[in-house]
Amino acid sequence: MIFGIVSQKGGVGKTTLAQNLGAELSAVGKRVLLIDFDPLGNLSVGWGVNPDQLEKTVIHALNQPKKGAGAVICLRPKIDLLPANDTLTEVGSNKLKKMVADMSAAYDVILIDSPPSCNLLTQSVIDTADRLLVPLQVHPFAYRASDRMVKLIDKKSTGKRPKPVGIILTMVDQRNSLTKAIEHSARERFGNDVLKVRIPRNVQIAEAPLNGLPVGEYEPTSKGAKAFRALAKEINKIYL
Ligand SMILES: Nc1ncnc2c1ncn2[C@@H]1O[C@H](COP(=O)(O)OP(=O)(O)O)[C@@H](O)[C@H]1O
Ligand SMILES: [Mg+2]
User: Fold this and answer.
1) Which domain holds residue 71?
2) What ligand is nearest to the CA atom of residue 40?
3) Domain at 205, CATH number
4) In total, how many domains does the chain have?
5) Close Cβ partners of 150 (under 8 Å, ≥ 6 residues apart)
6) Is 175 buried (19+), middle (13-18) or exposed (0-12) by CB count in 10 A?
7) Ligand 2 mean position, distance from CA 7 (Å)
8) What span, in angstroms and rounded, lies between the C-alpha atoms of 52 and 44?
9) Which residues have CB atoms below 5 A from the ion given as ligand 2?
10) Is the pTM of this model over 0.85?
């Protein structure tokens, strides 16, 4: 199963979702490949990898699908990373599709992180994925941005979505009185596409990648770690 993590807006939690969902899916036994498809390389950095020092990154794998496997970094027994840096320039869907097809036999799950804009890279991720995961920050402005993203995903075909979508409510702040209302309107607008598990706003989630770790390793008993563990279980059950 190939998941593309997309959202037009930056800072909504895409990279955080890629890192932690990947870590927790591997913890339930899945063989996971994380593809960093953002030239900023945040997903790579979050695992303690400095992508600027690497000779081979995702762009090599895109240009030479078979030999490009030399760019893959083994992070943990069941998680590999294809890192990115600013050598990743605009690539069309066909290259990404071919690369993913060549690599997919070795994995149960491929998670592709994407940049925070609707450029060709994001479009390639949308075209390549079996399912799109859209983090929806439970905040009025972010909510509008995600709404636009879903419309963009819908745009290409008439009425019918080209790709199924899973929406993950994130940075949920229980103390904010608007939270309930936004969650309610998201569930009303997107129905069953919204997953049950929500990711809280949690400081350990933000600290973990600064230490090169997923939150489940950094602070296993934190609310954030528990939420990602529950999310991986839900995703494993309903999509895998
Ligand atoms: N649930 C959360 N609680 C607290 N901080 C978070 C949470 N999710 C993400 N963050 C932090 O917010 C910032 C943006 O998240 P990130 O995943 O990089 O977004 P994106 O990839 O969409 O740009 C990062 O510093 C990250 O650590
Ligand atoms: Mg990111």
Assistant:
1) 2-239
2) 2
3) 3.40.50.300
4) 1
5) 134, 165, 167, 190
6) exposed
7) 9
8) 10
9) 14-15, 42
10) yes
